[in-house]
Amino acid sequence: MKTLLGYHQLSTRFDAAIADWGGSLLSLLIRFYVGAQFLKAGLSKIGDWSATLALFRDEYHVPLLSPEVAALMGTAGELALPVLLFAGLLTRPAALGLFLVNAMAVISYPQLFSFDCPAAINDHFYWGALLLVIAAFGAGRFSLDGVLGKKR
Predict the structure, then answer these.
(1) Residues with Cβ < 8 Å from 149, sequence gap 6 or more?
(2) How far apart are the C-alpha atoms of 128 and 99, rounded to whole Å?
(3) How far apart are alpha carbons 146 and 140 in whole angstroms?
(4) CA-CA distance, 147 to 133, in Å (whole number)?
(5) Residue 121: its pLDDT value, please?
(6) CA pair distance 15, 61, nearest whole angstrom
(7) For the chain, which residues score pLDDT lower than 50?
(8) Cβ contact 73:100 at 8 Å
(9) Is there a contact between 91 and 127 (Cβ–Cβ < 8 Å)?
């Protein structure tokens, strides 16, 4: 039993450092991966605004909002919130904001569920799950939130 406890102590000796530094690195990678997906979508929307408005009028059916307001809000979220994720500033609110943008995309475009290839809907589920991870665990050491937290 004493040997087992010794092995356990040895194997868990660096758990806190690994969780802190490794978790911070993983958070950074997730923030950049997910943020890049939304930023690319936002840039493509402002690249052809008339096509974006047509999509929101004809394809996306956002509840309670006019197509023009929905297009503006969705695009603004896809452009501004990833920048906050990249910087790690207001990370939890930014992640929750993008989660809502992502959820609204799934709700307003039900055709995602009818495609033969499930990759489109699966991507939204993966992004949503990763955004919830960031919202739950925060940005970690490699962020402005981490720097500001130390100054408090």
Answers:
(1) none
(2) 6
(3) 6
(4) 20
(5) 86
(6) 47
(7) none
(8) no
(9) no
Please tell me the distance from the alpha carbon of residue 139 to that of residue 92, in angstroms, as a whole number. 8
In SS3 terms, the chain reads as CHHHHHHHHHHCCCHHHHHHHHHHHHHHHHHHHHHHHHHHHHHHHHHCHHHHHHHHHHCCCCCCCCHHHHHHHHHHHHHHHHHHHHHCCCHHHHHHHHHHHHHHHHHHCHHHHHCCCCHHHHHHHHHHHHHHHHHHHCCCCCCHHHHHHHHC
Query: pLDDT digit string (tens) for 33-70?
Result: 999 999 999 999 999 999 999 999 999 888 899 999 99
The answer to whether 98 and 81 have CB atoms below 8 angstroms apart is yes
In single-letter form, the type of residue at position 119 comes to A
CA distances for 125 relative to 68, 95, 113, 119, angstroms? 26, 14, 12, 10
Q: Which residues contact 98 (CB under 8 A, 6 or more apart)?
A: 34, 35, 38, 77, 78, 81, 82, 85, 127, 131
Predicted pLDDT of residue 47: 97
Dihedral angle of Cα 58, 95, 37, 119, to the nearest 10 degrees: -70
